[in-house]
Design a protein that fits this description.
The complex is a heterotrimer of chains A (673), B (191) and C (302).
Chain A: H1 2-6, E1 14-19, H2 31-39, E2 44-50, H3 56-69, E3 73-78, H4 81-94, E4 102-106, H5 108-112, H6 118-136, E5 145-148, E6 153-156, H7 160-171, E7 176-179, E8 194-195, E9 200-201, H8 202-215, E10 219-222, E11 225-233, E12 236-243, H9 258-262, E13 270-271, E14 280-281, E15 284-285, E16 297-298, H10 304-308, H11 314-319, E17 332-338, E18 340-343, E19 347-349, E20 366-368, H12 369-375, E21 396-403, H13 418-433, E22 436-441, H14 451-460, E23 464-467, E24 472-474, E25 486-492, E26 497-503, E27 505-510, E28 512-514, H15 518-525, E29 552-554, H16 564-584, E30 586-589, E31 594-596, H17 606-610, E32 616-619, E33 626-629, H18 639-643, E34 649-651, H19 656-672
Parallel strand pairs in A: 1-2, 1-3, 3-4, 6-7, 6-18, 7-10, 18-29, 20-27, 21-22, 21-27, 22-23
Antiparallel strand pairs in A: 5-30, 8-9, 11-12, 12-17, 13-14, 15-16, 19-28, 24-25, 25-26, 31-34, 32-33
Helix pairs in contact in A: 2-6, 3-4, 6-19, 7-8, 7-16, 13-14
Chain B: H1 15-22, H2 38-42, H3 53-62, H4 65-70, H5 73-76, H6 82-86, H7 93-106, H8 115-130, H9 135-146, H10 150-163, H11 177-189
Chain C: E1 4-8, H1 19-31, E2 34-38, H2 47-53, H3 55-72, E3 78-79, H4 83-98, H5 100-113, E4 123-124, H6 126-134, H7 136-141, E5 152-154, H8 175-182, H9 201-204, H10 206-222, E6 227-230, H11 233-241, H12 243-250, E7 258-260, H13 261-268, H14 285-293
Parallel strand pairs in C: 1-2, 1-3, 3-4, 5-6, 6-7
The complex binds flavin-adenine dinucleotide and iron/sulfur cluster (2 copies).
């Protein structure tokens, strides 16, 4: 191996640039010493250190040196290539050099930010630079492939995020497929009566957007549908969508709802999902009055015809000539080709049964906040009346913040919206029932526009704010005044006194968490998830809607808890990113792809099944069969390279010579030290 | 009317002591305390304490160890762990209380007149010597040392226990008490 | 049912005020074909007091118990019926594995005493053994007597279900209730089931200890319970012994039997009456007499 390292290509002229990154690097690493060392390395013609290499003058330094010194290899020792590899490749290209003759060394994240000791940090930086110089010598000019971007977009999830993104794209003239799992679009927002902090009516602002989706010529809306398969790559995704039967045909139904009326069940009997079981529905039902599409749905789990095959089918009768009811319907598979994808699958709320201390599921008058949203909703189970399960109107209500959130045993994060929606619910409850309302909070978080003002308003309305996390809810009465009530035991931390507060109703401000099936979606679209399970953005500040899968964007609460304003802003941003991609028409692909040495390949097929991107096929069937890699599909993961038993797969930018030289460079330092 | 003046000078705080405390087993996490008060709300004894458990944490975090070591709170703590299982940060408040108790006894700053530390020390001595505790003798010794009047009250329940065959006046002792003593000695050296 | 063997660590209380627990536990286990072999020369676990004085000594003390178990019957589980002993032993195991400083002190002491240093003893509470090794279904099938007593409040106390334990979930546990239901003993929904009885507080700060137990009894009565079922000698003691005194202080009558769950189970499984330690109970003697003893028990239920 070492003879490879010795046999330097004769004409290499390397330039090395060591960045201070202000004090980020220079405070820990002796950058001057690193440049000094570089100057003495074989092949190095010029080595410099500079305050900010990524700045215009910094880049100009590279361009100028390429001209002045006829450099043909560049090494930049600075930050992570994630951040600035593009920058320095551009600089080299501007100087007339093939951009792949540049190599970056990360002496910030890998050195100065993680090592406190100056001397040893400098030593490590030197070794990394030596390795990089040895490596870059073996770099070869590469050409980028271009792939074209299919202009259609897939949006997964029809909550406010998906709706807003779909409309933005459709209004820009793009074709959008909107896939929603539920029978109606609308997501969580459709469940609310009012929205904080302005208290505008949720339906009034959401329903027009929902109808617009339905009516838009550029949007294909599939409800009761799920993505079941994804293939392809940025610009050219092939997606398979399974549409579960509604048993009522959308193309024929007029939305008269006579079928529901006519159902053999005269009374609604089954827990209504949309009302979280607080009311009943029939086997054929419309999820909620403003549902889009306005088409009933049949639940085969409760419909007599599906259970026994012996129903009078009065619904079919009622529909009559239209014949919209189709009890024979079967799942249907749609296949579409899109260039980009927006994931907008939202969140689920924390299940408070996991915290028995709050008595949810044990005491009937303990509710989740989402249930109360339905209770206060004019089209909800009680027509907007706030009444308890036993029909009483509560005279005192306790709202417990942070249920399941900021809790190491459950969800350690802050769910961001609970303080605000608790204020909203406190206001609505007080307004409609005159009840005494207690808010139990740990920290009051009202950082949005107009939020603090809303808090102020609630303070003025006489709502109690008790700073303390409730330890437990029970029906244990210690005093006659507590008989028949739910008692909250809490330390009022501002008083430093433990209090017992009896109430009629407890509202649990349950937190927001990733949907339980987020992991499946993550795998389908090959995006990443953060430790909590939310979809991970490419960069928390600078690429907040991109993911690590190119052409796949995220919007709304599937990326992390947020309120409606932030969700809509993010959905707009995701749509804009998708539009930008479409407008470019094509993109360059990183040429770090693997390739097969056809002469050596024995067509053993080891690689074919291993490739996570299905990029490998066996070609040349009649003559000499061998593997071939589609560069447009290859992501450069290197799995096949490592797996090939005969070593016939290689990879650009990860050639054996390059890697071996890099390792030798590091080891040379160790041996020398 | 008597008024009291309450003011804490920052020089009274001892951050080094707080650091020391953090290194004690079971005390690693108190730095993460949210001051949410769940511990106090869950504690059945907080209503008798001079500082609620949450406030004890606030005191130790800020380094006001004198208050934390001389308060009654730690001697009212029954070690029931209610606080620990309810704390959203997984802080083992009970173990922290134990550490404060030990430190208070070591520095002899525990409140005088409370029988709890007396019981702990009597118990310790008895088991140190015999390997087992004999309830009757333990209670008797504690009462004699802290509040002889309590004997009158104890006599009543004692009589009831005696009748029910639950009061043994035997001193329990293990066979190899010397082995145990060797162990304590070895442990002291082995630290 | 195959005979299963366990090492048995009664602890100091079961030698004195908790003698009824000792007797009924042995009998109950015998009924279920579970053998208990008492650990030889066991010592006190140190309870809550030791930890308050010297943590190292506390760990050494309970480490000796664990090491004896390891020496006398390696691989056999150690049953600790006193919830305080149970927690202390488990906490010691946890501390030894987690804190090197404690481990080295403990190991030095064990080595000096010629006891095994590598300890792999599983410490278990009888409720855990009955639930996991026998199971409520198997117990239901072995019921011999039909319960004719009243409704009971199942009181778990604190230590057994706390952080170091595995008897049940720490908040709102249910296993004791389910076990009682398995033998047809009706239970009330007792929300104070894990609220601490104060432990030794009745002996030290008596008024406070008394009040804690008053609250527990009062709520049980309010719930419609006629007796309390316990699983810890200290809880049983506190709830049983001071009822007279509470009555004197509050004017409210209290006369509730405070039973060990092993007494109730044992009775339902057909144990010999004399072996359940019923004579050691103090409060609610009339009910105890009526429920357990008076009439001939209805034989062969099911
Ligand atoms: C009780 C409560 C009250 C709130 N009140 C307010 C308020 O007053 N003001 C405010 O600004 N914010 C409020 N919020 C926050 C608000 O709900 C969110 O900001 C908003 O709903 C996020 O929208 P979304 O589209 O990202 O997610 P969602 O509303 O959850 O929508 C996601 C959609 O995707 C669909 N979906 C999920 N998985 C799939 C899949 N695999 N395939 C296809 N479809 C899928 C779902 O069915 C759903 O329709 C509140 C939240 C809660 C819990
Ligand atoms: S419960 Fe935990 S976080 Fe809350 S105040 Fe107590 S110790 Fe701190
Ligand atoms: S362990 Fe002590 S501080 Fe914690 S809840 Fe129990 S009595 Fe209170």
């Amino acid at each position: 191996m070492s003879e490879r390292g010795q046999k330097l290509p004769s004409d290499v002229r390397v330039g090395v640039y060591v960045c201070h990154c202000g004090v980020n690097i220079a405070a820990v690493v002796d950058v001057r010493q690193v440049a000094q060392l570089a100057r003495g390395l074989p092949g190095v013609v010029v080595a410099r250190d500079y305050n900010y290499m990524c700045s215009d003058p910094g880049q100009e330094l590279i361009r100028q040196d390429i001209r002045d010194y006829a450099l043909n290899r560049i090494v930049v020792a600075s930050c992570s290539p994630h951040l600035h590899e593009e920058t320095f490749r551009h600089a080299a290209a501007a100087g007339g050099l093939n951009p792949y003759l540049v190599h970056m060394v990360n002496i910030r994240e890998h050195v100065s930010w993680v090592h406190p000791d100056r001397e040893r940090a400098t030593e490590k930086a030197c070794e990394l630079v030596r390795a990089a110089v040895r490596r870059v010598v073996w770099h070869e000019p590469l050409e980028q492939a271009r792939v074209s971007i299919h202009p259609d977009v897939l949006v997964v999830g029809g909550g406010i995020a998906g709706i807003h993104a779909a409309l933005t794209l459709a209004n820009a003239g793009k074709r959008v497929y909107l896939v929603e799992r539920q029978p109606s679009i609308g997501g969580h927002m459709a469940m609310f009566d009012k929205t904080f902090p302005t208290l505008d009516c949720a339906a009034c602002i959401l329903t027009p957007k929902m109808s617009a989706v339905q009516a838009h010529p550029n949007i294909t809306l599939w409800t009761l549908a799920e993505v079941t398969r994804v293939e392809g790559y940025v610009g050219n995704y092939e997606v398979e969508i399974t549409r579960w039967p509604r048993y009522v045909r959308e193309d024929l139904c007029s939305g008269c709802l006579k079928c529901i009326e006519a159902c053999v069940y005269k009374d609604a009997r089954f827990p209504d999902e949309f009302n979280l079981g607080l009311s009943k529905r029939k086997p054929i039902y419309l999820p909620f009055p403003q549902a889009v599409p306005q088409v009933p749905v049949i639940d085969p789990a409760t419909c007599i015809q599906f259970k026994s095959g012996k129903c009078k089918k009065t619904c079919v009768e009622a529909c009559g000539e239209r014949g919209a009811i189709d009890l024979q319907a079967v799942p249907k598979v749609e296949r579409v080709r899109v260039g980009s994808v927006i994931l907008a699958t939202g969140f689920q709320t924390f299940d408070p049964r996991r915290m028995p201390e709050y008595g949810y599921g044990i005491y009937p008058n303990v509710y989740t906040s989402l249930e109360v949203e339905r209770l206060v909703n004019a089209s909800g189970p009680t027509g907007g009346e706030i009444v308890l399960r036993d029909g009483r109107r509560p005279q005192s209500v306790g709202i417990i913040h942070c249920v399941g959130s900021r809790d190491r045993r459950h969800n350690p994060w802050c769910s961001r919206v609970c303080c605000m929606y608790s204020l909203k619910l406190a206001h609505l409850i007080r307004e409609r029932t005159g009840a005494e309302v207690f808010n139990f909070y740990i920290d009051m978080r009202t950082p949005g526009k107009g939020f603090e003002e809303f808090y102020q308003r609630l303070l003025e309305e006489g709502v109690h704010f008790i700073r303390g996390r409730v330890a437990g809810v029970s029906d244990w009465a210690l005093d006659p005044s507590e008989e028949g009530k739910l008692v909250l035991r809490v330390e009022d931390t501002l008083l430093g006194i433990v209090r017992r507060i009896p109430v009629d109703m407890v509202v649990l401000a349950v937190g927001l968490e990733p949907r339980s099936d987020a992991e499946e979606l993550r795998r389908l679209f090959r995006v990443s998830c953060s430790a909590e399970g939310f979809f991970l953005e490419r960069h928390p500040k600078l690429a907040p809607v991109s993911t690590f899968a190119e052409g796949v964007f995220v919007a709304g609460c599937c990326q992390g808890p947020k309120d409606i304003p932030d969700t809509v802003a993010q959905a707009g941003a995701a749509a804009a990113e998708a539009l930008a991609l479409i407008d470019r028409g094509s993109i360059e692909q990183e040429p770090n792809t693997a390739y097969v040495l056809a002469d050596h390949c024995s067509a053993c097929r080891t690689c074919v099944s291993l490739c996570p991107y299905s990029a490998i096929s066996i070609v040349g069937g009649d003559g000499r069969p061998h593997a071939e890699i589609n560069p447009a599909l290859c992501k450069g993961c290197g799995t096949c390279v490592a797996a090939c038993p005969s070593g016939s797969i290689r990879q650009h930018l990860f050639e054996d010579e390059q890697i071996v030289a890099e390792i030798e460079g590091i080891l040379a330092g160790v041996a020398g030290g | 009317m008597a008024v009291t003046r309450t003011l804490r000078y920052q020089r009274e705080a001892d951050p080094e002591w707080t650091e020391w405390l953090r290194r004690q087993p079971g005390c690693e996490a108190f730095w993460e305390c949210l001051q949410c008060g769940t511990c106090s709300g869950a504690c059945p004894l907080s209503i008798y304490m001079d500082f609620t458990p949450r406030r004890v944490i606030a005191l130790v975090r800020e380094g006001f160890y004198r208050d934390a070591l001389s308060c009654q709170t730690i001697w009212l703590c029954a070690s029931c762990y209610a606080c620990a299982v309810h704390c959203p940060r997984g802080i083992r408040i009970t173990d922290l209380m134990y550490t404060l108790k030990r430190e208070a006894i070591r520095r002899k700053v525990h409140p005088k007149g409370l029988p709890t530390p007396v019981l702990a020390q009597e118990f310790y001595r008895m088991v140190q010597r015999r390997g087992r505790n004999s309830e009757f003798w333990l209670v008797l010794r504690m009462a004699l040392k802290s509040d002889p009047w309590a004997l009158v009250r104890l006599a009543r329940s004692g009589w009831r226990l005696l009748r029910a065959g639950r009061l043994s006046m035997r001193t329990e002792q293990i066979r190899q008490a010397d082995q145990l003593r060797t162990m304590f000695a070895a442990a002291r050296e082995g630290r | 049912m195959a005979l299963r063997r366990y090492l048995y660590y009664p602890g100091c209380s079961l030698r004195g005020t908790g003698v009824a627990y000792d007797e009924s536990l042995r009998e109950c286990f015998r009924q279920l074909g579970l053998e208990l072999v008492e650990l030889e020369d066991w010592n006190c676990c140190g309870a809550t007091s030791y930890m308050a004085i010297d943590e190292g000594a506390a760990c050494v003390l309970s480490a000796r118990v664990l090491a004896l178990a390891q020496q006398q019957a390696p691989g056999v589980d150690l049953v600790a019926p006193c919830s305080a002993c149970y927690l202390v032993l488990r906490k010691t195991e946890d501390y030894i594995s987690r804190y090197p400083e404690i481990r080295s002190r403990v190991e030095a002491s064990l080595r000096k005493a010629g006891l095994p240093v590598q300890i792999g003893v599983q410490v278990r509470h009888p409720l855990e053994v009955l639930w996991e090794d026998v199971g409520p279904e198997a117990i239901r099938k072995r019921v011999q007597r039909h319960w004719r007593g009243g409704r009971v409040a199942c009181y778990y106390g604190c230590q057994a279900v706390r952080p170091y334990g595995e008897v049940d979930r720490p908040i709102r546990p249910t296993r004791l209730d389910e076990l009682m239901e398995a033998v047809n003993v009706p239970v009330v929904d007792y929300s104070l089931r894990t609220r601490c009885c104060g432990g030794s507080l009745t002996g030290t700060i008596h008024e406070v200890g008394l009040r804690l137990n008053y609250i527990l009894l009062k709520e049980a009565v309010r719930r419609g319970a006629e007796a309390i079922v316990t699983m810890c000698p200290l809880c049983q003691f506190n709830l049983d012994v001071f009822q007279n005194e509470m009555e004197r202080q509050t004017g409210e009558p209290f006369d509730l039997p405070v039973l060990y769950f092993t007494q109730v189970l044992g009775w339902c499984l057909g144990a010999e009456l004399e072996k359940l330690g019923l004579r050691h109970l103090i409060a609610g003697r009339d009910l105890v007499e009526r429920w357990f003893v008076k009439e001939r028990p209805v034989e062969a239920y099911v």
